[in-house]
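Q: I'm teaching a short session on how sequence maps to structure, and I want students to see two examples side by side rather than one. Could you give me a first protein with its sequence written out and its structure tokens following it? Keep the formatting plain so it prints cleanly on a handout.
A: Of course. Example one:
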Amino acid sequence: MSGRGNLLSLFRKQAHTSIISSSSDDPDSGLDVDHSGASGESFRLGKNIETDLITTLQNLNISVGRGRAQLLHTLKNDNPTLTKKVPFECQDSKNSKDSLSENSKLPRFKPNTSRNDLYYPNVVHGSRELCYLTGLRDEVRTDYKLMREIASFTRVSPNERQVALNKFHENVSKSPAAQNILNSWGLSLNKKYNNLKGRQMETEHIYFSKMTVSAGKNAEFSKYAVSNEMLEVIHLNKWIIINLRNDTRAATNLLDNMKQCCKPLGMKFSKPTMISLDHDRIDAYIQALRGNLTMDTQIVVCICHNNREDRYSAIKKICSSELPIPSQVIIAKTLLNESKNRSVVQKIVLQMNCKIGGSLWTVKIPLKNVMVCGIDSYHDPSNRGNSVAALVASLNSSYTHWYSKAVVQTKSEEILNGLTASFETALKTYQKRNGNLPENVIIYRDGIGDGQLNTCFKYEIPQFEMVCGDRIKISFIVVQKRINTRIFLGRENRLENPLPGTIVDKYITRLRMYDFFLVSQLVRQGTVTPTHFVVLREDADYGPDIIQKLSYKLCFLYYNWAGTVRIPACCMHLPPFECTKEQKCTSVKIHNTDDEHKRNITKTNDE
């Protein structure tokens, strides 16, 4: 709490009387009184302001150094009759005496002259100051209707952004004060935009089990994802459905729609074990899971009556840590909407196939004996405990099977220091699957800002170098999402968002860095934000073209969306994002074994 701000607030009505400052030569002396007014004349504190100042200093139980005690001592010597509890409003000298006599019986406060002690105020006299929290609360973010209305203001199109920038330039140009500031720094604003040349990637082809389709210029293929046989299908032979007795209709709708949806997707399923619960209690779900899950269970589906975070966390904790079985949590009302049932169940079936070891689609990546890794860390704002760092690593040449593991770090630590063992285990798992170690490892590191690039280069990369030695070459790429750069596509007299696959690696890149910007997804509302890739190390000498094409191709392999995502899929499969819903779990370990029917290889979020 600022002592200067409290004292200055006393003189807003009579600011001409005196000036409060911290102009003492001793930096620890606290607050002093500057008796020199603006006109150079000498002023003393008026009686009313003197009274209010003592009242505030005595009631604010905050030590601001020796200056507070000195100021109190000076004021009391000038007017020893002043006592505590004087109304804050400025009074004339006639009424102040009556007010003082009414409060003379109140206990006096002995000022604390310690420099380091900090206390909370007991009583605060003066005008109130209101603090407003910025940002959106979690309750607001879950209100989809409200977020849709907010998006109409926050998602600004390229043309609207251009109009706003032109208006800003006009306001600055017409303001003499702004021009003086710019001229003093030798700066000027140019109304013209920087024109630069980018490159457009070729249209990608999506490979299903029996068909290959083109993603098109918009890089979306959702209609093909639900009508073609999946790349790798795992049939459901032994699985469990847990639901409330009141939600039996929702479970029936799920099974009826699965009969229609599974056939075109190439999946077959047997009748599940149905478990009905009488009470919607967390312990009822926990007992049902512990009493029925076995190592032969492929997946358990929990149909919950409503969206409760504590119930969801309990289910995921049991199925991720205690009994590592893939799980799918569904809210009952999503299965009761007859008009959307089919599309909802189609997505649920796709997710269930991923979680039990199957794959949906892939793209052609002509790299041999190369392992791709993704690394990120997560800091839970609601839990100021340890951070979670995670690593995922590809296990096959189609980049559809992934090994993943998470470790716990110290509080809010972004630089990783405990993933060496996880990376070494990932190499052993790759060797067990393929019979040999990879020749090259390409690591995508998410969550690193510009100020941490040097630390990452000196601290994180040597950890992986110690594990790889001379036998494996390392390529380390930092992925930056939170950037201010915006790229527009100029057509005639209007601006548009660039199409997916747009690459910019000149003009706006760093002078001494190997970096590029990639627009990987289609944005129909607002302005697209490109992703910034910084290559900190490349031992294999792939060159910019291969790194850029690989980064774009990996954006197609996130199975929660039949299209491209903003960052490579290996940075989206990370377990820390599941820890946001499992705040009670101190560690999440998803260690994939060779039996793909018992462990989930590709992790996706629930509906």
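Q: Perfect. Now a second example for contrast.
A: Example two:
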Amino acid sequence: MRKMWMKFLFALLLLHVTAAKEPELQYVLMVPAVLQTESPSRVCLQLLNLNETISVRVILEYGAVNTTIFEQTMTTSNGLQCFNFMIPPVNSALLAFISFSAKGITVSLEERRLVMIWNRESIVFVQTDKPIYKPGQSVMFHVVTLDFNFKPVQETYPLIAIQLDIEGCLSQVFSSNIFELNCTGYMRNLDVKAIVTEKGTGLQLTVTRSISITWVMSSIQFENVDRHYKRGIPYFGQMKLLDNDYSPISNEVIQLFINNKNTTSPLMRTATYKTNEECYSESWIEPSYPEAFLSIQSFYSWTDSFVRIEPLWKDLSCGQKRMITVNYVLDTEGYKSINIMNFYYVTSNKDSSRSSSSGSSKHALRLMFKLLKPSQFTCPVNGMARGKIILTGETEVNIQADKNGTFTIPLVVNEKMAPVLRLLVYTLHPAKELVADSIRFPVEKCFKNKVQLQFSKKQMHSASNVSLVIEAAANYFCAVKAVDQSVLLLKSEVELSAEKNVHQLLQMLFGCGEQNMVLFTPNIYVLYYLNITGQLSEEVKSKAIGYLVSGYQKQLSYKCPDGSYSIFGIIDKEGNTWLTAFVYKSFAQASHFIYIDDYVQAQTLMWLASKQKPDGCFRNVGTLFNNALKGGVDDELSLSAYITIAMLEAGHSTWYPVVRNAFFCLEFAYEKSISDVYTQALMAYAFCLAGKVEKCESFLRELQKLAKEDGEFYPFGKFGKQEEGTDLTVGTWSNFDNIESITT
């Protein structure tokens, strides 16, 4: 009897102890990573396991200005709450911080994250009265300026330049049968010589190009594939079969093989179209059909719980209602006593005034959330978007019968979601893991106000009267343009279409991300030098700028979704810090001659800033083929000096937060001994650019001691004593594949 009472008392004690331990407070804060001024923005907050009254505050910090987004007292967990706010204009695009704090009797939470502030921009449309003109004809055009909501804006433009297209294209088809391309013993290329004679002057230009001959008849590409596989979740992706001209091949069978099915190691997928035929004659070349390979890493979850949103293979149409299917796998151990689980979803759009060069990029939200410890703040959805939170919601799922399954989210598509919609779905695991997935849905172009027009008759005789019927909402202005189709008889051409131009440029992919920059940067230095010395002719300027525009577009194809740059772009695991800093600086310098998208630069700047450690130094990530960019060294100090130089050469001042913090790193290292010559040179250049004369001269003296005199040549430059009262003049240089430029 005594033992029974002891057991009962012990059970009561355990019950008391268990009941006394309350669940820990958790929160999720969502905010767009790029906030636009003078535009409604929204942040969303979710509190879970709130058992006391707390004071919650979210502040936007940029420069010396602190803007309170919201501040209020909360007593219960009320699901996902959203707050609207506006940001006043700023002088330039700035890095800012979102600060979150929650205070209570037993609760003390604080977190701070980077965001970007972007000034509201106008969209300018310039349209000519017709696409083709004869010599001597007047060019008529009109200019329309719209804000981000596509509403007219009154602006004045002092100068509008119209560039005439003086280039042409001629194609010639010939039979390759006469060249015996299937036989060995010949050079595997064709030499083509073109001679162009100008009418009237008789001036001739001759160009020779070499065309390589390939026996590769097809290629297979993996597209829109999941970067990771989640155990128990369907894997999604597409394969494309192309011929040797990269045109799609239809109605053919592709075989897909998967190995390592029963392991947690990376899965290897092999796609095969045709088996290469055996060649029985040494003098005969058979066509080749290479296989395609794809390695897929497993997605890690410490609770073995996963969520996956099923993709849609077509663009969403405005006005339609789509049911989005979500797959989930929840571990049975963590959900033993739970029958109903809440899944939350958030939709955001990408700003319609911007387009992306990377179709698979993750344009999403910046998330802050507390799971287990204060140090475990992470961002499960990478990337950034100049978008807004549009829709939030939640759905209850009964998991009593099965911890694996699917549920659907109703989605009514409207104009606010165009051109790209990002959907985020998440749930909070009892073990304090955020189980989440996000997906990007392209949305067709649509507008809130519909306009329709048609002629009263489809066909009319010449000089007959015809009516044009326009239907639109009341009190709206409609711009109408009519072009006599006879002008198109001069040349088979279309009117301005940025999407046809961007599409063509994206096909021009030659060389990797490093090689392209080797060809890109010399044009900048040549333009600077010839311009300063008064030797820049219009012919050379046009040629160099053409190369810059082409190289800029090519380099965007090596841009990763997060804003960094790598050797091969999105197929690489991550971007490289050295290359990204080099591209950022070069694009900033090239912006004096060609158009460089400020948003692309801002995204890159934000990525570089995210690699800065608390001590101001930068972490090195990614890989490079060519070590010339790094000077043969690969340490954080030389990288930090290099990025500091890149920031200064890009036009940032020393008080810019990223630059200011970087000099904390460099000045701390200045007090120590630096043995590597390349690092010393980088440090010298960084301090000289910043106007820190004392440290600059100190490094220059050390470099001069190491320099070896060879006639009139000093490898590190000849530095004489600076005359009193004169400014220190420093040359800018780029050490990349032995390319060097000196300007003062």
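Q: What should students look for in example two?
A: Point them to this: Residues 23-120+312-442 form a domain with the Immunoglobulin-like fold (CATH 2.60.40.1930). Also worth mentioning: The chain has three domains: 23-120+312-442, 177-300, 502-706.
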